[in-house]
Amino acid sequence: DLDAAGAAFDVQAYTEDVARGILPSWTAVAQRRRAQQFTDEQRNWQLLRRGRYLEFNLLYDRGVKFGLDGGRVESIMVSAPPLIAWKYNVVPAEDSEEEKLVKVLQQPREWV
User: Fold this and answer.
1) Cα–Cα distance measured from residue 75 to residue 82, given in angstroms and rounded to the nearest whole number
2) Cβ neighbourhood burial of 45 (10 Å; 0-12, 13-18, 19+)
3) How many other CB atoms are found less than 10 A from the CB of residue 11?
4) N- or C-end of the chain: fewer Cβ atoms within 10 A?
5) What is the pLDDT of residues 34-66, one digit of tens each?
6) What totals of helices (H) and strands (E) does the chain contain, helices first?
7) Cβ atoms < 10 Å from Cβ of 98
């Protein structure tokens, strides 16, 4: 148990390190990308990916499924993306950036 006294891993220090690092790193990315334009097709793809995220959370995530069986549904749904789209059997266009992403997601690799 990571919270047990004498644990080899300091959860508190790790959490504080992540908290100190996340905003500076995220802010730099957001500043670079905030004026970037996107197409309607790209926006639709984003909404479809968000829909798949919500599908996973509601159907497969053990924590969410447990919460739906007796928790506050509002608390679970508020964590969902505000806008989503869902279509059956979406296949991205051949050689598109979306198809490249799907291939990476279907064949995970060790990054470290």
Assistant:
1) 14
2) buried
3) 11
4) C
5) 999 999 999 999 999 999 888 888 777 776 666
6) 5, 0
7) 19
